[in-house]
Amino acid sequence: MKKRRIRTGSAILCVLLLMITLCAAGCGNDNTKKQNQNQETSTQMTEQIENTTQEAENTEVTEPPEETQQTEQTEQAEGVVLDANGIPQGFSATDDTVWVTTNVNLRGENNAESEILDIIPKSTEVKRVADSPEWAYVEYNGSRGFVTMDYVTTEEPDQGQNAAGAGNVTRVYSSGGGNGHGQVVVIDAGHQSQGDSAQEPNGPGSSTMKARVTGGTHGTTTGVYEYQLTLTIAQQLQTELTNRGYTVYMTRTSHDVNISNKERAEYANSVGADICIRIHANGADSSSANGALALAPSASNPYVADLSADSIRLSQCILNDYCNTTGMKNCGVTTSDTMTGINWCNMPVTILELGYMTNPSDDTNMENSDYQWNMVQGIANGVDSYFQ
Fold first, then answer.
1. Those residues with Cβ within 8 angstroms of residue 302's Cβ, 6 or more apart along the chain or in another chain
2. Are both 151 and 38 inside the same structural domain?
3. Both 154 and 224 in a single domain?
4. Chain centroid to CA 379: how far?
5. Structural contact between residues 192 and 252, judged by C-beta atoms closer than 8 angstroms
6. 306 and 273 housed in the same domain
7. 115, 213: one domain
């Protein structure tokens, strides 16, 4: 049936073949157009991708805010939490100029146990960045750190004049080169920034207990504390005695310490000191009390009676030369057996009371730089006299 239709409808078949051919040709043209359109679309997409890539390469990456980065780095470096403006947490921004009233430690954190970054000399001008009731955050020699507010003032010191009321003071120079031949001298700068009321024995085997160390007195005219004055003089004396040939040790070189009177004496024992000079200043209820004096153990001292004679002689040598050089009133040598810092010593020892900080004249004189020079020369001359 099928074969018969093909034979008899060959004409129809030819027509169908022709139509198929024409249709195929038409479809081919449509596919070619679509291919061309696809190629154009592909080319356009490629150009768009290339343009987008180029734009991405030229676009800057946005970094975190600079303040945030700086704060994080500072915190890690110093262990102090700073805000976006570089101000320590709990501090108020100030941005002013201040001066330090004594040699003071620049610390990495606002506590007395933190690392000491530097030592700022007395009367140095520094920039105060921020402060709290107890600490100033300052900038010194390219570093920022903390100093206690006790040592900061907004009043510029008068470098060209002597301390107020002190008058003109002429420096006295020693004529000799000193008698130092390596003798070991321990200088104890009395007191410290904070007293310690914890108890310690008054002497070896003693049942009498006394405070480890007290806070000391202060200048009623100058406002300077005893522990500040004593360290200032002790450091100058260290330099002078070293220049004269002595070997010098210091029980402390900063204010932020906690060293008891017993521990200071034991330190002098440990370095084999030939003599120990304990630097102090006096105070009294009456502002008229003035002058210098020295303390030494008595011959009946229950702990160091054997040191009495040499300690009294050491006291006399230092006090006499000190008063002769400075013009300070000489109040003489007094014996005392209740001083822990004396009773634990193994060598001749004296306590020199430089003057009365409660007396306007003594107090003002002792803050005069030229007068301090003479104070140091007088003590050093006394040491020379003792070793003659």
1. 203, 206, 337
2. no
3. no
4. 29
5. yes
6. yes
7. no
Is there a domain that residue 374 lies in? yes
CA distance 376 to 237: 5
Dump the DSSP string for 169-201. ------SS----SS-EEEEEE---SS-EEEEEE
Tokens for 195?
Answer: 């007293």
The verdict on 198 and 94 lying in the same domain is no
Chain segment 325-381, per-residue pLDDT in tens: 999 999 999 999 999 999 999 999 999 999 999 999 999 999 999 999 999 999 999
Structural domain boundaries enclosing 351: 184-387
For the domain that residue 148 is a member of, what is the CATH number?
2.30.30.40
In a domain, 249, yes or no: yes
CA distance 314 to 317: 5
Number of domains present in the structure of the chain: 3
Give 355's Cβ-side CA count (13 Å radius): 27
Amino acid at 115: E
Hey, how many other C-beta atoms are within 10 angstroms of the C-beta on 145?
26
Q: Around Cβ 82, how many Cβ atoms within 10 Å?
A: 21
Q: What is the residue whose two structure tokens read 């008595």?
A: 298
Is there a domain that residue 177 lies in?
A: no
Q: Which residues contact 101 (CB under 8 A, 6 or more apart)?
A: 122, 123, 151, 152, 153, 224, 228
pLDDT digits (tens, 9 = 90+) for 299-327: 999 999 999 999 999 999 999 999 999 99
Q: What is the pTM of this model?
A: 0.61
